[in-house]
Amino acid sequence: MAILSPLRHRRRTRDRQVEIKQKLLTFPIQSVWFALPIQAVFRAIEVSQLKRIKDSRVILFEERPITLIDVDKRLFNKRVKRSPEFALILERPDLELAAVLIDEQPFMRQIPIEQFVTVSPSQTELIPCVISVAAQLIDQPELHLLDPGLLLYSEAIN
Q1: For FRET with 114, which of 1, 104, 140, 142 sits at 20 to 30 Å CA-CA?
Q2: What are the tens digits of pLDDT across the range 102-151?
């Protein structure tokens, strides 16, 4: 029978680096890749499951009203005609729902926290609501991490 040594266990765990990863939903908008923390997204659904109230920025999901966020206007300060396929439903702290319409199905990725670099104020002028950028991985596009609070409440941009 082998004798278990606490010293041997400590040596093994000391040599092993612990990598903390953040779970993110990633998606492209106008060929730029963005990410939201998974805990900020209430639900990701197909647009066909939503009912649009005519001539309004409100949609219905399961009979609950949801405010549409014009992400093209918020992030790029211009409106673009596109045909979104998916909606990311975000829950505000006041329990109201808001939706971001995206063109492609979002992907869940786990990215090490140390790969994100905080953006400078001059960079946030280019794309508002971005709080950090992930260093570009091999064969991966640059990823811009969005601040859900800024995305939901930056009314001055809208």
Answers
A1: 104
A2: 989 999 988 887 777 777 666 656 666 776 676 666 677 788 888 888 88
The three-state secondary structure class of 9 is helix
Q: Tokens 């730029």 sit at which residue?
A: 32
- Show the tokens assigned to 23: 């779970």
Render pLDDT for 48-72 as a digit per residue (tens, 0 to 9).
Answer: 888 887 767 888 888 888 888 888 8
Strand segments, DSSP code E, in the chain are: 21-29, 32-37, 41-46, 51-52, 58-61, 64-69, 86-91, 97-102, 107-112, 116-118, 130-134, 143-146
